[in-house]
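Example record for the data management plan.
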Amino acid sequence: MTGYDVEALRARFPALVASEPHEAALDNAATTHRPQAVLDAMTRFAERDNANVHRATHRRARAATEAFEGARQRVARFLGAQAGEVVFTRNATEAVNLVARGWLEPRIGLGDRIVVTALEHHSNLVPWMEVCRRTGATLTVAPVSDDGLLESFELPANTAFVATTRVSNAVGTIVDTAAIADAAHARGVPVLIDATQAVAHLPVDNSLQASDFLVTSAHKSFGPTGLGVLVGRAELLAEMEPVTFGGEMVARVSWEEGPSWADVPHRFEAGTPPITQAIGFVPALDLIEELGAANIRAHEIALLERLLAGLAAIEGVRVIGPPDAASRSGAVSIDVLDGDPHVAAMVLDMSGIAVRAGFHCAEPLLERLLGGPTVRASIAAYTSEREIDALLAALPEAAEAARLAGKPA
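Corresponding structural encoding:
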């Protein structure tokens, strides 16, 4: 990991500089902070080139369109796709819903099955539940062990679609999505991979590129909020129906014939798209590539080993999910035994440590593993050892306060 200087990296993030040395930023699975380069790119666009895209021919409009479509090309290059296979959405949730409503729902019905894992964020679970409710299809869930690892992945008869996360946002489990995709494709079944918690942590390799649809979110990868990405195979996007209608997504509209759709991907980007956010995402991807996925992963494993070892030495808490650093990424969920995790999180906040308490939008998973909410500490490329140590030092007091409060009703 030669040349990986976490303190120099942190100096590039204004939110970290402003809070240091008083805050440990350990809520990165909810959203990451943004480097100055991202803020500069968005400000520069607002000050110099602000205009809508694809519409006018004046200088600012041409510059805005060029920058926006350049961002699409940059995202495609980062994810190993073609620019025409990248759709910009408001967030990863909207991207999943677009596939659910626009591609899968017209092709599925009574007797068909959608397979998901028990590790899914609600964003990659509830849309498929809704498709099943509307069509009569059946949802099948691949189970997890008590350690939060996939026990098995079987495709029942009549499986029509598979949706899986690459990394659990709640317990950090890394899923072998390449193997899942291989099994599904052997049966001619398309696969959607939720890469939201993976892009800023793990290499973009065949574990992601094996997907037929891939979704991610800029703000989980040092980019701005308000931008999601859907990558779909060109032939599948060509078959997909738009689900949001209005300006920009049409080729022509007439009273007599009604609307006809624009080419992919623009037919899926009704209205004014997230222009500033897409432009701001480019320096975030540049940063990830500059750091190198292997270096980020090595830094992350060292932090996870430090954190897991420290937690094992604290009475009254236990780790939920995989017991070893190699099987997990990003998030570590902590059970405060006989205590209220929300109280623990508030006490940690008073010590300047930002974590999250709750079900983390993965309620079925945590009900299976624990039967209740957890305290979640989540790391990023810029997380430092001293932040981990600060959490470990403050956690015994926080856990004691949580036990005095008792388990939430």
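Summary line stored alongside the record: The chain has two domains: 6-30+292-405, 38-289.
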